[in-house]
Amino acid sequence: MTTITLSRQLGSGGDSIASRVSELLNYRLFDKNMILQVAAEVGLSESEIVDFSEDSHVARNFFERLFGGPRTVSRSRVWVESPGGVRTAQDIRLDDQSSVAITQASVQAAYRRGNVVIVGRGGQAILRGRKDVLHVRIVAPLEMRIARLVDEQFTSYETATQMVKQHDRASQDYLKHYYDIDWDDPLLYHMIINTGQCSVEMAAQWIQFAVQVMHL
Questions:
Q1: pTM as predicted
Q2: Chain mean position to CA 159
Q3: Which domain holds residue 78?
């Protein structure tokens, strides 16, 4: 069994590649539905599940880190019944550190299942050094990424440019802060694919071939 982690820049086509790789290899895609399944296996209730990844992370500046303290990233309300049968509502708040721990536990549980594609979520750090894991990075030239967002989301060039830059900054901050890695470090990956030089299908087939070679 092999697990694939796929790190991707916004607008690089990484999500489409992950979906196509899942089809080619008949692998499961580690999405929110699968997170609920694997989290239940490690004893987490649905109220405790939060998909906290670089996609939902907002980078803090120096003073926010210095004075801000833990950041609440998820809130939910559950009903608690006392021994006397009285039910009361209780608010549950998860901070960023707790949410990262839950994400890590979910990724590890998905890895134990095997034959899964994990997109983002620090997979290249959480599963670093595992011999049965293929780490892939998907990149593309900045102008191409912006143009793709303009076409896909029917937004302006200025808005797309801001989205790309904010996402890059948040992803870099997330992985540096929680895992102390540089997401652009080529030594983290087996393959770095530039979709400015190839199609989604070509990239997916390269990854498929790499997985097949790992099983030889």
A1: 0.76
A2: 23
A3: 3-214
